[in-house]
Each structure stands twice: as C-alpha cells, then as structure tokens.
Amino acid sequence: xxxxxxxxxxxxxxxxxxxxxxxxxxxxxxxxxxxxxxxxxxxxxxxxxxxxxxxxxxxxxxxxxxxxxxxxxxxxxxxxxxxxxxxxxxxxxxxxxxxxxxxxxxxxxxxxxxxxxxxxxxxxxxxxxxxxxxxxxxxxxxxxxxxxxxxxxxxxxxxxxxx
Length: 163
What we know:
Helix content: over 70%
Shape: elongated
Number of strands: 2
Number of helices: 6
Strand content: under 5%
Order of helices and strands: HEHHHHEH
Largest sheet: 2 strands, parallel
Distance between the termini: 21 Å
C-alpha cells in the first residue's frame, strides 16, 4: 500500500475514532435512553468480577430482553470499533496487547467518569466485557487484513503472468 494512501486511511480512522469516542461518551453519560438524565445520590459501583454478568444471566427472565442484550452483548459490540480503528490509525503495527490496553484505559476512563458524576455505575464487568469487545474488533481487523493481503497478492501475481 502506498504511503500516501496509508496516511489517508490513518487520518480517516483517527477522525472516526474521535467521532466514535464522542458518541460513546454521549450515550454513557448523557443519553435519556439509558436513564442518564438524573444521577444517583450515592456512588454506585461493582468491584466483584462477573457479578453483574451472573446477575443478568440469572434474572434474564425478569429483565427485559433489551436490557439483557444491551448489558451483555452491547458491552462487547460497542467496543469492536476500537479494535478496528486503532490499528488503522496507527502507522506502526498494533498488537493485541496494545489494543487490550487502549480499550481497557478508554473503558476505565468512562467508568471513572460515571462514578465521579454518579451517572451510571462503575462496573468491573463492563471493563472486562468492553476490553473483550476491543479484542474481538482487533481479531476481525486481523482477519480482514489477511484477506486483503491474499487478494492483493493474487492480483499482483496475476498481473505478472499477463505482463
């Protein structure tokens, strides 16, 4: 890939990453849909790993399907873009550890803002699920990159045969 094309992809990815971050922050801290208009009068947090996940699975018949899916699958899927956009943005190779760290730190900052502002709940399970979502996005990115490279390789080889 040409250096100029790579720079354009990096710039577009950074732009999308900033927009994505703003949208996530809006929904987590300000969205009426998620009940973020009024904060809690006390600090709310869960520091026990898998506690909320277990609770949602145990009481899935008592909570709405939307709440169940939003909490479990939503926390995974909403951070997929981090795992895709960061390696596209960075010109250096970005491995799974770096994606895990970036996703974890982004999630930690969101969870901390929720705790400080008393909007939402600081939840260690969200840290886990969001980080796994970032890794899932990175895995999809790596698969897409391998497919792209194979297709590019075939294109180059077929071009050599003709020439």
